[in-house]
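Weekly puzzle thread! Below is a chain. First person to post its structure in C-alpha cell form gets bragging rights.
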Amino acid sequence: MSKEKNMATTASLIQKYNVPAPRYTSYPTVPLWENNLENYQWNDLVEKAFRDFGQDEGISIYIHLPFCESLCTYCGCNKRITKNNAVKDPYIEALLAEWGKYKEIFEGKPKIAGIHLGGGTPTFFEPSYLQLLISSILEGAEISSESEFSFEGHPNNTTFDHLKTLNELGFTRVSYGIQDFDIQVQTAIHRIQPFEKVKAATDSARILGYTSVNYDLIYGLPHQTVQTLESTFEKVQELKPDRIAFYSYAHLPSAFPAQKSFEKFLPNDEEKSELYEFGKSLLVKMGYEEIGMDHFALPDDALTIAKNEGQLHRNFMGYTTLPSKILIGLGASSISDVYYAYAQNEKSIGKYEALVKKDTFAIQKGHIQTKMDNTIRQVILDLICKKQALIPKEILEKLGHDQVATLKEMEKDGLISTSKDQIFVSEIGMKVIRNICSQLDLRLADNQLKKELFSKTI
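Winning reply:
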C-alpha cells in the first residue's frame, strides 16, 4: 500500500471512530462516580491505603494553585482570575491545614514519591510563598530516592528565582504551557507569549539543572492551519524540550463561555485530524517517540525508557514513571486516588477554605471502588500504557452485544487483534485508544451520557 493510500486509510478510520470517549485518567471516570463517600469512610480508606501501599511505594501529591492574572479563553481548568495579592495567604494556610489532616492519618513518617504543582498558574505565587508551601509539606517527611518533583509554569511570569527556589527544594521537572507560537492564534485564545520569553524560561531551567522540560501544545485551536503549526514546531525544534504533550482542544462553550469568542474560527473535524497527523509526523522527524495518548518524549527521557521497559503508569496528571498507588490532591477541585476510593475537593475556593478551616475534608464528590472497578481499571491502564491487556473472564461475560460487535469491527479494521482472552492494540489503534477502552467500560455501557461529557478523540 502506498504511503498516501495508507494515510488516507488511517484518516478514514480515525474519523469513523471519532466519537466522544473519556480520557481515562481514572476508572470510573468522574461523571460516573457514585458519590457514595463520606468523610469518615475517606479517613479510613486513606489510612488503609497508607498501611497497604504508602510506606513501601510512597505517596504522590498534587497541589492545585488556581489563581491566574488573566483569562486564557481556551482553558477548561478550574481557576480564578485575579490580581489581588490578598488571596494568597489564606489559600496557602488552607493547603497546609489540609496536608496536616492527612499527616494525622498516616501511621509514621510519610514517604514522598512525587509532588506536582498545577493550576491555574502556580507561578502566580512569588517564590517565597512556594518555598513556604513546599518546605512545610516536606517537614517531617521522607523523600523517596526516586522522587519526581514538577511544576507547571507560565513562560511570561516564571522567573529565574521561581526556578531556583523550587530547584533547591528538589524540583527537577518543569512544564510550560505554550499551546501555539502563532500570534493570530495566541491573540484569539488570549495567551500572548513571545518566543523570547519561552526561550528564556527554558534556558533558565537548564542552567539551573532541571533534567526535564515539557511543552504543552494544543491542536484544533482557532486560526490554526498546517502552515502555522509547522512554524510553531520549527520554534519548538529550536528549543528541543525533553517532552511534549500534544493535546486536542476540547470545545465546551456551555461550560466555558469564553470559548464562544472564537468558535467560528475553529478548524472542522477533518482539518483537526489533519493537524494532529501533521504535528505527529513533525515530532517523529524531530526525534520524539510517541508515549501514548497525546504524549511524546525524546529517546533518553525517563518516560520513553519506562514505556520501552513496560513500566509506564498513568494517573490524573497523565503518564508518569511513578508506581505509587496513592495520590493525594490538595487544594480546590483537586482529586485524590488511594486505590480503594477517589475523592474530589470543592471547586469553589471559598467553600474549600471554609471546610478546611473547620478541620474537615473538603470533599465535594467521591467514589468507593468495587472489586470490578479495580479490575477494569487495570485492564484500561494496561491497554493505554502497554498496548495489550489480559481481559478477565468476569469482564468478558458482562460485555453487551454492542460492545462485542464493536470490538469485532475494530479487529476487522486492524485497530486491535485478539488471542483467547487478550487484546493487542495496533499502531493505528493507539490513535483511538480511548474508544477501544470504552468498549470495556461496563459503567459507561450502562449509562446514557450527554455528548459534551467527553471530548472527542481528535
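Puzzle host: Confirmed. Bonus trivia for everyone else. Residues 449-458 have pLDDT under 50 and may be disordered.
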